[in-house]
Amino acid sequence: MDMNERDECSSEKNENHLNYHNAGFSSGWQFRNPSVGIVAGDQRGSMEESFNPSLWKLCESDMPAIAKPVPATSRFDDDGWTPPDSSSRGGSFLPGGPAILSPTLSHFPADSAFIKRAARFSCFNAASLGGMATPFGASHLAGAQIHNIDINMAKDASLHDVDPGEAADLGGGGHETADSSSKDLAAKKRRRPAEELEVEQGDPQMAAAAKRESVDTDHKAEQSSSTAKPNGKHAKDASDAPKEDYIHVRARRGQATNSHSLAERVRREKISQRMKLLQELVPGCSKVTGKAVMLDEIINYVQSLQQQVEFLSMKLAAVNPRLDFNIESLLSKDFLQSHGGTSSAIGFSPDVVHPQMHLSQQGLVQAEISGNLNHPNAFRRAVNSMPNAWDEQLQNVMQMAAFSSNSQQPRTQ
Amino acid sequence: MDSKGSACSNPNPNPTFGPSKLMLAFRFLRALSIVHRTTPASSPTCRGRRIERAAYASMAYSAGTSRAWSRAVLRRLHHRARRRAVAPRRLSTTAGNRAEALRRLVPGGAGMDYCTLLEETADYTKCLSMQVELMQGIVDSASSNGR
């Protein structure tokens, strides 16, 4: 079974990270089993034998102090299974895997968050190795079971307070391991500020324990409900990547402690990232400090844009016949050029299209993308144009349209 | 499925998101011509509304179905759930929660968590500004050319 699976893996994609992934899978699975108590003994044994060599060959050898599965987990985190938007941030939590694990284990031997993390791993893996569903059917089922437990446990976890000592431990551990693991420098760099941030934020968080508790309960509920969905989806469709990965990221971070602070940190990090993105988009927003003000700016901007659209469409409704003529001729030219060659085409004559109105252009639009993209008219040029060059572009379009309409109008009508 | 696949294969977290201007312009111009041709005699407000809808539709089509806001716009357009589908007219930003205000502004923002909301807002804003540029350009060229 195991050999089969490995072969499949390496033949499917000749990439190392898949092997890593494999290794991470097996050891994560092993690791989980004892703690949860749903054990497929023989499976575990054979996996251990077959995967550990590759695991240890591929993983770095300079993390002696940490339990076996831990580097595997971090390695797993490191590879290509992270989603697009987590690939940058994902790195920041790599050292966190090992770092956080040991304190958590020492403090809370039967920590629910730990079980939860294990459960998440199992579902993710079972699905992401979709092709090998059969050998791992058992593990997937187990994952689902664990997940059920997990929801209950998560609720429990969200109800009891985090003690400050744990957060401190967490930070310290993060630094240590980040230093000791020489694997991912960038990840370390990113991790350190994050840890410091966390340690700093630890105190206010503790001070506002009651408030945070409620927030975290919400967060927990959201998390568990959001993980509940993909569990079912995994079985059907393993290629539904973005959502899974997104959840996976959360799980990975939640795994570390009993997860309040980690999850919150992830969330904060994401929010500030997006805020930065928005800041670039919204003019006049870069000077503003403070999220509330920034949000106000964003809201105003969006609102004004929507009003502008409204206003401009009214204006466009008033402006016209000449514009109308130009556009029409432009479009007819497009029809001719893109579909003229294949005259057997699907009847894209304007007469057919028009009664359907703009609301049902979908088919037309899709059909036209291909044709439109490979002929060098003014639109084509507009692709590479600068954002503020609209006017000239449109002038070009109009002129070309007017020009071509003279020559091609007879053919269209 | 395709859009999801492409979204996942893209390693860059914030690529040049938003639609290409080419397609946006093309769609909108075509829709505009259709509106003008099919409603020659209707009142300017009615026509303006149609153009506005066309603007949002072309935005949404250009953005593709990978975005929640574009899906929401398209859903509303297809089902005609509300008369004033896309842009809720008035909203009070002063009323406490800013996130709520943003949620009402961005199509499909109702059930989103905060992170997703911000992401969608970014994309939506980008598309919207592009659309406004385009429409402004059309208006300008029409008023300078046509008269």
TrEMBL record, chain A:
**Keywords of the record:** Nucleus, Transcription, Transcription regulation
Q: Transcription: is it a keyword of this entry?
A: yes
Native organism: Ensete ventricosum (Abyssinian banana)
All copies of domain BHLH, residue ranges? 255-305
What the record says about family reads: Belongs to the bHLH protein family.
Q: What is this protein called?
A: BHLH domain-containing protein
- Record's SUPFAM superfamilies? HLH, helix-loop-helix DNA-binding domain
Disordered, as annotated region: 71-95, 162-243
User: Mind telling me which GO cellular component terms the entry cites?
Assistant: nucleus
Q: InterPro entries annotated for this entry?
A: bHLH_dom, bHLH_ZIP_TF, HLH_DNA-bd_sf
The keyword S-adenosyl-L-methionine belongs to this UniProt entry's keyword annotation: no
Record-level Gene Ontology MF annotations: DNA-binding transcription factor activity; protein dimerization activity
Regions of biased composition (Basic and acidic residues) lie at 176-187, 210-222, 234-243
| Compartments it resides in | Nucleus
From TrEMBL, chain B:
Query: What does the UniProt keyword field contain?
Result: Nucleus, Transcription, Transcription regulation
Where is this gene product found?
Answer: Nucleus
InterPro entries membership: bHLH_AtIBH1-like (IPR044549), IBH1-like (IPR044660), IBH1_N (IPR059002)
One GO BP on record is:
regulation of DNA-templated transcription
Name the domain of life.
Answer: Eukaryota
Q: Where is the IBH1-like N-terminal domain?
A: 27-80
Known CDD domains for this protein? bHLH_AtIBH1_like
Q: GO CC terms on record?
A: nucleus
- The question of whether Transcription regulation is a record keyword is answered with yes
Principal localisation: nucleus
**Name of the protein in question:** IBH1-like N-terminal domain-containing protein
**Source organism lineage?**
Eukaryota, Viridiplantae, Streptophyta, Embryophyta, Tracheophyta
